[in-house]
Amino acid sequence: MRILMLATLVASATAVAVGYGWLWWKSARLVRACLKQGIQGISLSLFQTAAYADRWSWELLKNVQHYEKIFYVKSGQHVRLVVLDPVTVQHVLTLNASCYEKASFVKILEILGNGVFSASGNDWMNQRQLLSPTFFMRELKDNFGIIKATVKDYLECLCTHDTAVVDVHKIFSTLAVKLIYQVAFGESLDDKSAFMVYKRFDNYLHQRKHAFCGPFFNLFGFRWKSWGSVEDETYLLRVIRELVSTRRQRSSSQCTKAKLAIDILIEDLERCEKSGSNVVLDNSATLLLAGHETTANLVTWAVYLLGTHLNLQDEARLEVQGIKDLDMKNVSQLKVLGMILWETLRLYPPQPLIGRRCIEDNTVNGVFVPKDMEVIIPVSAIHRSVDLWGHDSEDFKPYRFANGINKAYRVPSSFLPFGSGPRTCIGQSLALLEAKTILYYMLKHYSWEISPGYQHFPDVTLTLLPRFGMPILLFRL
Ligand code: HEM
């Protein structure tokens, strides 16, 4: 018996040693590949990585522009190349895109499963071909009436007195959940349930980020999950299952509207008889998350910037007052509002990091990238680079976009709020349409200032959000 226990102990110790040795060898190989090409970097221990969890946040991200144009960060078993040069970025995202898949940090959101955001290869291509047409402008036209009515009703009763203090981050997040429910799933959701969905996703993202940066995450394939994140995930999956089942019953009976993302997914599942496949659930979770977080953050930061640049708020209001009733035609005439949104996306990109994992040795812009290397593109730092955007790169100046997006910067691929290449965002037209509609009604009915209680703390989970919310002083016009 003792011999058996000893043998088990020795075998386990050997397995741990071999496992660590293998991980060490793998990361040492990637570091060597960097050093051989003269690429310098920093190594963080597992515990340092945990300590960086917060600082990986905003300050670190926007200031990496002061480092080399390309450098590596080794944290635990992962070696990541941080790339700031737009030409190299273009190689990774577009020209050599087939050599890359999504980075490991995307995979920590298990709730997204193998949906279009996280999948690779043919799985990704099939889902992308199915889903992206449902977000084309011509399809969105059919939904504009619903988007407008939902925004108008929700924002009109935001402030029942002459003035109020409201947290617009909470408000826009709840509204964005209601909108994606309508546009992607054809269902309406009451305010309380929409708030719960937003709050659960918010907690889930926060907890998964901290688990990912913690020392025990993914140790020998075991992914650490806190009790809170399991609870949030279970709640959200239940909501999504209910949504899919409601839609399934409805699609067989009284579905009349233009094709929605959810119907396309269900039809495909039934046509191909993909029994046991989670494609509908995974993509429903993906659309629900990707479709509300980013848009809500965009509008929140736009309100922040207009609350700190009151002259531009007045200019935007003047433009809005020139349009009596918003429709699909005149929404594109909101030029000042359009520039404000582009400039907000530049300074506060809702997705401030894009990550890839190299699946095949390749050379990008003269740099050899070996298989298994992760590449991080810090969008926020590229957007604030003095070299690319000029000496006023930190200032809020929407008119830099007056001659169109491409004329606003010096080097192609310097502006990546929606990514670039084959995996560019499928929801950008919807996001901009929703953002313009929300700001249209905000400017029409209210003026605002930032509340003295506001604490400026942009926080990076998967997206960039104000950690302590965005309280504003709202005045009814
Ligand atoms: C302001 C709002 C938005 C921003 C800034 C944004 C940003 C992005 C970015 C940067 C990517 C590329 C990620 C990468 O390359 O790794 C992306 C992908 C994606 N976005 Fe958005 N997004 C927004 C709104 C939306 C909306 C409203 C939807 C929902 C319909 C959506 C659905 C997706 C999906 C499904 C992908 C994955 C596409 C693929 O991998 O093929 N996004 N988004």
UniProtKB/TrEMBL annotation:
It comes from the Eukaryota. Heme binds at residue 425. Keywords: Heme, Iron, Membrane, Metal-binding, Monooxygenase, Oxidoreductase, Transmembrane, Transmembrane helix. GO terms for cellular component: membrane. Its cofactor is heme. GO terms for molecular function: heme binding; iron ion binding; monooxygenase activity; oxidoreductase activity, acting on paired donors, with incorporation or reduction of molecular oxygen. This is Cytochrome P450. PROSITE patterns: CYTOCHROME_P450. It is found in: Membrane. Its main location: membrane. Belongs to the cytochrome P450 family.
